[in-house]
Amino acid sequence: MFGARALQGVFGALLAPAALSLLAVMFTDAKERAKAFGIYGAIAGGGGAVGFILGGVLTEYMDWRWTFFVNIPFAIVAALGAYFVIREPEGGRNRNPLDIPGVLLSTLGLVALVYGFTRAESDGWGDSVTVGMFVASAVLLIAFVVTEAKVKAPLLPLRVVTDRNRGGIYLSLGIAIIAMFGTFLFLTYYLQVVKGFSPIKTGFAFMPMIVGMMVGSTQIGTRLMTRLPARLLMGPGFLVAAVGMLLMTQLEIGSSYASTILPAMLLLGLGMGTAFMPAMSLATLGVEPRDAGVASAMVNTSQQVGGAIGTALLNTIAASATTAYIKDHIGSATSKSQQQLVALEGQVHGYTNAIWFAVGMLVLAAVIVVTLVNAGRPDTGAVAASGEGAEDEVPVPVVAH
Fold first, then answer.
1. CA-to-CA distance for 239 and 74, rounded, in angstroms?
2. N or C: which end of the chain has fewer CB within 10 A?
3. Distances (CA, A) of 76 to 8, 46, 70, 79, 331
4. How many CB atoms lie within 10 A of CB 5?
5. What is d(CA 241, CA 187) in angstroms, rounded to the nearest whole number?
């Protein structure tokens, strides 16, 4: 299974950047671009809704293996559509040789970072292997940056990420995804383990968040992207999502889905949909054709790395809080039922502790956006120069993520 998932990741890494790159190539007019990215966000959100519900149906009524098998017909349809419909834009291919040292250093550095967070859950932050993983990650990633500054055809041209706007977008997206992925995990645990929801019922329980994402992307983001600077959509979007997370910190064993979880999910989806849509557009606006694929891939990379770190880090925080709670309260439990209740309360306590951390991550993402992202409205034909605060003409957007 690990090997198969690794292959999925490899080919997914080839697929995801190409999708957004094509959007930017095909839709260069500001209003058309806003509409295209809005539709893209809606389809992504709709796919998420289908995934939650279909996954629940397959798991509950068939077998968990079907959650993998069901992807095959979708993949066949998508592959046929790509072959017969999509045409590569002229001059858009990067023919440089692959930067092998960059690939190895970046991959090993990120793997060490994520494994360090995962290891901290079971062995603690002071464990020698945990500390060693973090040190190794820092060394490898620093070596990667040094390498990319020297090689002729770098895997990641530093000019892509040192641009003030793109750097702010990548960083804020990664941090926001840290908050989202961990919260999805805990909410699934809470609904199924604490509230006793079935897999299919859990899938439908996530629907308000998907609806919120679609509304935020297609209605708010699409309508306002050409009227407001990106930071005035992304910053408030992350803060609205943070308010949704804040509601989830109030979860208890007896919390009502309708009064607590439903409004929290709506706010979370609405905020994220509003923030992500302009972020994906701006992340690839004005890049050179040779850098288009890299700029697009960085959006996907920031999301994937943020998701991996979020799952590992927040799970570590939750597990530590749960262990501490049970240790402090188990002594007062005299019967088996009371011990089970303390264990359940400990789990919820762990979830809410981790969600508090997620709230902080979203607020930090909003601060980063407001501080670093200084691009003007896409329809003005200008964005602020990196690090300067002045506005310069930018070339027609060539490729998106």
1. 35
2. N
3. 15, 19, 11, 5, 57
4. 11
5. 15
Residues contacting residue 112 through CB under 8 Å, at least 6 positions apart: 133, 134, 136, 137, 140
Choose among 50, 34, 49: nearest CA to 274. Answer: 34
Once rounded to an integer, what is the mean pLDDT over residues 189-204?
A: 87
41 half-sphere exposure, CB direction, 13 A CA radius:
32
Residues 213 and 222: their CA atoms lie apart, in Å, by 12
Choose from 29-33, 66-70, 388-392 the range with maximum mean pLDDT.
Answer: 66-70
For 73, the token pair is 């017909």
Separation between Cα atoms, residue 274 and residue 214, nearest integer Å: 9
Q: Which residue has the higher pLDDT, 148 or 183?
A: 148
In whole angstroms, give the CA distance from residue 358 to residue 97.
40
What's the number of CA atoms in the CB half-sphere (13 Å) around residue 36? 20
Closest CA to 197 of 171, 206, 30, 323: 206
For residue 69, pLDDT over 80 is answered with yes
Separation CA 108–CA 85 (nearest Å):
37
